[in-house]
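This entry is listed as follows:

___
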Amino acid sequence: MTENRSTVRLNKYISECGVCSRRQADSLIAKGRVFVNGAPAKAGMQISSSDTVRIGEKEIVPACNEIVIAVNKPAGYVCTEAHFKNEKTLSSLIDLPVRVFSIGRLDKESEGLILMTNNGELADAVGRGSNHHEKEYEVKVDRPVTFEFLEEMRSGVSIEIDGKIYRTRPCRVKKTNADSFNIILTQGMNRQIRRMCSALGYRVRNLRRIRVMNVLLGGIEPGKYRQLSETEIGELKAALKKK
């Protein structure tokens, strides 16, 4: 474990081992899949360097090297590993010596930039909607984009998720073609852009994410990925510290 601290919260330790984010670690603990010294773990517990932590039958240890990659997710792939039979997963595209997990998600029909890492702390910080991190998308719809549509998207749209009504945050939107637009969001509700368009009478035909904070999709081919440079990771972490 990390030196110079006697104990650490269990969910933080699991994320530092590169297993998953803190939130996902809490879910594993609640499901009874985490054990400390052979006993079922409890939410919020503290552990020390002398404790043994297992998830299922596998003992976990802190990740040695931090990995952050940018992936161009093709349409038809899912970001979660809890998938239905024969579904194509994002992780199946990755060939690395350590396990990495996605930071946030794109729905199955959408494509474009996904960040993946073995650093749970980084995943939590980037994925947290309350931090107002920018994510940029290119969207094509089924009818002409009007001035009124752009204004309503910019000011916020009331959308329904699981029977509840939410108002989206104001955002930046610009028309890029007769039936397409560019949008920059600072939140990430489930299928948000699709729901916003639907509420205004539009249907999304194609949705592609091209930027997450300072990281650009660039020329990464669909289904391929690249490791972020030290400069990109440094800029990403510096932006997170300002929140």
